[in-house]
Each structure stands twice: as structure tokens, then as C-alpha cells.
Amino acid sequence: MTTKPRARRAFWGDIRFLIGIALVILSIAGVWLIVSSSRETTPVLQANRTITQGEALTSDDFQVVEVSLGAVADGYLAPQDLVAGMIAARTVESGELLPAVATADAQSGRTTNIVIDSSVGIPEKVESGTPVELWYAPRLEDDGEFDVPRILAADVVVASIPETDGMLTQRSAAVEIVIDRADVADVLAAITSGAALSIVPLGTGS
């Protein structure tokens, strides 16, 4: 007695084959999306110079560059995001893209600028944007000498320094610094009392 051969299941009806095709399509689509997104660029602001904390932000300080930032693009300022009254919430280095967290409204700024005379000059390595400590030595009333130096303000940034010719170890003593408004009274009191002031770059001894 002969038996009929079992009917073979249709190849195109194999569910595993269909799943495989779907996975291949999804994989191709995913790669295409990644490549497409990597080619998309966003216009953002890039600092032309070092901008110190508390400084007003103006269009003259930036150039517009096209960069691929992907999902983090919203974290950086585009040209249209720069508005009047904006200041730097921290030092923005020259060439750095301007992040939104590095900006603040002038009304909410906690810092101000003061010009002091450093009694020991200004080290050559110090420049605009350099974080420093402000030290002072109170003047002794008896003989005009000075007491032991101590820190007056720890969170200080150099805003600007005079330009000088030549490579000198120490430059002109005048320096503009950015300090917290809470430290203004102490700094002014030290200046008016004749204390010796000096700036010390972070990471160095006094």
C-alpha cells in the first residue's frame, strides 16, 4: 500500500522567516537613522575669547559654528538665544561652545568686579579667567609692619590684567578680579585699612 507524501509547509509562510526579515529591516532602518542624525548640524555660539564670570555676553564675543550635537543640542545656545542682559555664570574659555548652564540673567548675578593692587606683583601664568585666591596681610598699628598673611576670598577669578612688554616673572600689580558680592565689604575694608593684598593661583603655595 502506498501513502501520499506529507504536504510541505509553504516557505513564505514560515513565521521564523518573516521575523528574520522584520529584524533585518529594523536593523537597516536603525543604521540609517543613526547615520542621518550624525550628519545633521546645529548652529551654536563659540567664544572668540575667554569670558570671565559675571561678564556681559554680547554677539561680538562669539562666532557661529555648525556642529553635530545630536540629543544634547538643546544644552547649548544658538545665535537667537543670546539676549540683552545675559551674563556669564562661570568662566567660558576661548573656543568653547556656549552651554546654557554657563549663562545667567544680570539681575541674578552674585558677583562683581574690583580692581586691587597685588603687593607681590602678578605671576606670569596668571591671565584673564584664571581662578585664584585673594590673600591679605593686615597692617600692624604699632610699627607699620604687616601681620601673617591669610585668605581673604577663596572663590576669585581674574577678569583682566594690564598689558606689559617683555617676558617678566611679575607684572604690574594692578589686577581686576571677579568676587562674590558677599566678599565685597571685607575686600574694601582690607583696601581702606592699608592691608597688603596679593593673588595666588590655585594649586600653588602662598
TrEMBL record:
It comes from the Bacteria. Gene3D superfamilies: Antifreeze-like/N-acetylneuraminic acid synthase C-terminal domain. It holds the Pfam family SAF. InterPro entries: SAF. SMART domains: SAF (SM00858). Residues 42-104 form the SAF domain. The chain crosses the membrane at residues 15-35. Keywords: Cell projection, Cilium, Flagellum, Membrane, Transmembrane, Transmembrane helix. This is Flagellar protein FlgA.
